[in-house]
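step=encode ok
step=design start
structure_in=
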């Protein structure tokens, strides 16, 4: 017995020793300095053109609604990017824009850069300047859509504009796509995919918004990271209702429908019953990020082979992000009782919003909730559901090319794959490529990240200039 105990202790000591040595050997991926010098001309161009784009309030619309703001926006694009409009073929599908620049070799698979034209609504309340003014304050351009997603459109279009001016001809076709209802999950991007599918077009690589260069994306890190979204979680809204007899609240029975709903919600929130799992891409993400943490965290993240169970147990406790990246999440967002203070509701309900994981799809996540719902005699109805997108291959040559370009253009930042918690139009394009990647080469601070869809959305002018340079170099060096 004693020998077994000593044996176990020796084994633990050896494993920790190996982990410690491996930790000491983890090298920082990005030690370079960014030497890029941005010229006043570049920032002035960004301020002028993106400012004009922001000043058109292109709030998301369905295809059958009034699209006049979008058509005004198209005119702004025509004025700001004349070379693109002379050189690219443009197709407008109910407001959604598709552009094609013919490459020199028709046998090469085309590439697609995308984003979206629409923005979420904004009023001026709490803003430093009117929400659609596109004003420049302290080197940043403010306004709804300045970051999400007109910054992406600007850096892509301006890069193409400058490449054409330089006389460049791409080896393969380059396509651009910008829908009018990404924010509302409308049909724009899906209609573009149908159009392209009919023409038999498939892409070597598709690059959309979603990832960016984020300042210390996880607390405790010491540098900016370029995060590339390789998949996005699924989405499901559920209506969970309880039936009862109703009646006067002065003589309440036990176990009223509302109480059963609350007990259910409480149990789900406490137990968080979904499967926690590290998919290989998240494994890779932590591996690439390990070096930017202090020794303890570096040891944990750099030795997942040893600490995986500990990591899976700790992450959900440490932060909501840590949980969301490991499993399906469930959040109760809406509720309805009776219409009066003194009436027991007959059929109150809760709405739960789930973000389903790659490893536990909508059907499986629903089955988990159903077990608990049965216990409280509740009914579940699906309002809407879509599974997580496929996962793009992080070992493809296209992914490697993108990361190489990032390392060249932004030698001071780390690079890692990432799981998108929200949704982007990019998910539709998995049907047309094995490499649907979400990355906009624009630096953003945590405040700027938080200001998307909120007040004082803004983007730094020099970051836009860097983004333009990135896409130019990406296209110039592309030879796959
Ligand atoms: Zn967006």
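sequence_out=
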């Amino acid at each position: 017995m004693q020998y077994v105990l000593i044996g176990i202790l020796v084994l633990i000591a050896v494993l920790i020793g190996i982990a410690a040595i491996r930790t000491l050997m983890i090298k920082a991926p990005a030690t370079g300095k960014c030497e890029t010098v941005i010229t006043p001309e570049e920032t002035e161009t960004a301020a002028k053109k993106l400012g004009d784009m922001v000043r058109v309030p292109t709030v998301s619309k369905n295809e059958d609604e009034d699209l006049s703001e979008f058509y005004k926006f198209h005119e702004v694009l025509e004025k700001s990017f004349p070379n693109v409009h002379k050189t690219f073929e443009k197709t407008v599908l109910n407001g959604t824009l598709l552009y094609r620049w013919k490459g020199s070799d028709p046998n090469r698979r085309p590439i697609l850069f995308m984003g979206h034209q629409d923005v979420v609504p904004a009023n001026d309340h709490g803003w430093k300047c009117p929400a659609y003014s596109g004003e420049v304050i302290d080197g940043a351009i403010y306004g709804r859509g300045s970051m999400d997603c007109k910054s992406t459109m600007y850096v892509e279009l301006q890069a193409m504009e400058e490449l054409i001016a330089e006389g460049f001809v791409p080896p393969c076709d380059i396509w651009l796509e910008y829908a009018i209802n990404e924010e509302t999950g409308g049909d724009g991007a899906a209609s573009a995919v149908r159009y392209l599918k009919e023409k038999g077009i498939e892409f070597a690589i598709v690059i959309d918004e979603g990832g960016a260069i984020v300042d210390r994306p996880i607390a405790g890190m010491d540098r900016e990271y370029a995060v590339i979204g390789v998949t996005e979680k699924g989405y499901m809204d559920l209506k969970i209702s309880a039936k009862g007899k109703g009646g006067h609240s002065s003589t309440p029975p036990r176990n009223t429908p509302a109480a059963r709903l609350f007990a259910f919600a409480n149990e789900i929130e406490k137990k968080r019953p979904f499967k926690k799992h590290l998919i290989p891409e998240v494994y890779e993400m932590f591996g690439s990020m390990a070096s930017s943490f202090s020794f303890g965290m570096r040891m944990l993240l750099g030795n997942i082979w040893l600490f995986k169970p500990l990591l899976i147990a700790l992450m959900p406790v440490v932060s909501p992000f840590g949980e969301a990246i490991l499993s399906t999440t469930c959040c109760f967002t809406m509720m309805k009782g009776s219409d009066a203070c003194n009436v027991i509701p007959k059929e109150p309900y809760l709405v739960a919003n789930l973000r389903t994981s790659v490893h536990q799809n909508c059907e499986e996540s629903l089955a988990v909730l159903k077990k608990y719902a049965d216990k409280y005699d509740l009914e579940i109805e699906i309002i809407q559901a879509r599974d997580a997108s496929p996962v793009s291959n992080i070992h493809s040559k296209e992914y490697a090319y993108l990361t190489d370009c990032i390392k060249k253009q932004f030698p001071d930042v780390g690079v890692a794959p990432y799981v998108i918690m929200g949704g982007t139009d990019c998910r539709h394009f998995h049907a047309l490529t094995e490499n649907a990647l979400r990355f906009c080469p624009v630096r953003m601070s945590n405040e700027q990240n938080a200001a998307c869809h909120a007040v004082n959305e803004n983007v730094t002018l020099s970051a836009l200039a860097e983004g333009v340079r990135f896409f130019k170099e990406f296209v110039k060096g592309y030879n796959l």
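step=design ok
step=annotate ok -> The radius of gyration is 25 Å.
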